[in-house]
Amino acid sequence: MSNRTLQLQIDGMTSEGQGIGRLGRDVYFVPGSLHGEKVTVALEGRRKKVWQTRLISVDEASPQRTDPACPHYRRCGGCDLQHLEYPAQVEFKQQRIEREFYRQKLEVPVWKSALTDHPWHYRRKARLGIRYSKDKDEIYVGFREGRSEHLTNIDRCPVLPELDVLDWKQWRELISRLDSRSKLTQVEVVSADNGMALVLRSLSALSETDARCLIDWVAELDSESGVRLQLWVREGKEPQDRLLYPEDAEPLHHHVLDMPLQIQLSDFFQINGAVNRAMVTQALEWLKPDSDSVVWDLFAGHGNFSMPLATRTRRVIAIEGQHSMVASLKRQAESLALPLQAIRTDLSDADALSALPDPDVVLLDPPRAGAAEVVKHLITRQVKRVLYVSCDPATLARDLRTLVDGGYFIEQAGMMDMFPQTHHVETMVLLSRPEKRRG
Hints:
This protein is of the alpha/beta class. It is 23% helix and 33% strand.
C-alpha cells in the first residue's frame, strides 16, 4: 500500500495539526502539511473512507511554512507543528478552540489575548526512552517516532533547557559503558527553579561500579553548569527513588506568585514556567475572590492555584485524587500558614463533593477527560462563579454546554500556549450564574 502515491490539495487541518485532503468521498490525513498546500503523499492505510498517509514532498508551500529548528523533527514524535510559523501556531490553536465551541453552540462575548512566551527551551519536564540493541550493540536515547513505538535517537531537544547535561549523545556514550545498559528503560528530566533532577529507570539495581560512573559524570557537569543537579535512580519491579548525587538534595520547587511550591519527582506540574505564572495571575484577576470567599480548587495537584488563592481569601478547599499530592498540599499550606484544607477524593464520583460546605467560587483544572460529573454538581449547588481551565477543547466545550444549559453564561475566555511547537493547547473560561431577583 505504501508504494501508491498521489497528489493532494490540503483544504483543512485536524485538531491534531494534520492536513486534510479530499478526493471524491475519501478523506486523507497528511501529517506535516498545512492548509492551502499541494503535496505528494504515500498511502499507508485506510479505515472506512479515511486514509492515513506519509508526506513525500510539498509541491506548493504555504506562506506560513517554516524550516523546523530541530534536526530530528521528521522522525521524532515529540513535536508536530515545527513546520508552522509560531504566530500561525497560536492562530491555529485559537481557531481549534473556537471550532469546538461552535460545534456546541457556545457564545463567548469576550476573547482575551492569548498567553504566550518564548517558543523554545520552555519544557520543564520530559521523559525519554532508553533502549539497548544487543544485535547492533547500540544504545538509543530519545522520544518515540511519530505513529510508532520505535525510539529515535536525538542529540539535543530544542524545547528542553540548554544545558550540557541534556546532551543525549553524551548520555548514549556514557550508558554504553555501563554493565546494566540493557536494564535502563527511561531517563526523566525534572527542571525546577532551584535545580534539576535526572531520574533513571532501571529494571534491576545498579551495580556500585555503574552508580559511581554516573555519579562522577553528573558531578563534573554539576560543577560546570551553574545549575544544581540531582541524579536519582528508580530501581526494580516495585521501584523506589534512590538519590545517587549529591549525598543530600534540597527539595525542588518552582515559584508561583513569589511562593516556592515544592515539586515531588512524580508530581504533575505545568511544564511551561513562564506561561504558568501568567495563567495563575490571570486566574486570580478573573475570579476576584474577596477576603470572605470559600473557594474550591478541584483537581488541585500540588497547589498551583490553591496556594495563591489561599493568600486572597479566608478558606480554600483543595481537592485532589492522589495521596502524595494531598500530603504535599497539607505540608506546604502548614509551612506557609495558609488557610487551605486539602482533601483526597475521587472527582469522578457524583457524590464526592456533597459533604463539603457551599463554595462562593470554584476553580477546576481537570485532566483531558474533562469533568462531566463535577459540572453537574456545580449546577446543583448553584455556585456563583466558575473558572474552568482545560487541556482539551473538545471535553471543555462539552462541559461548558452542560453548564450553560444549567443556567450559567460565559463571561470571557482565553487561550494559553503552554506547549509551543505542538498541537496541544490550554484554555481558560470564566462563567457566572445570574442571581435570582427577589419578589
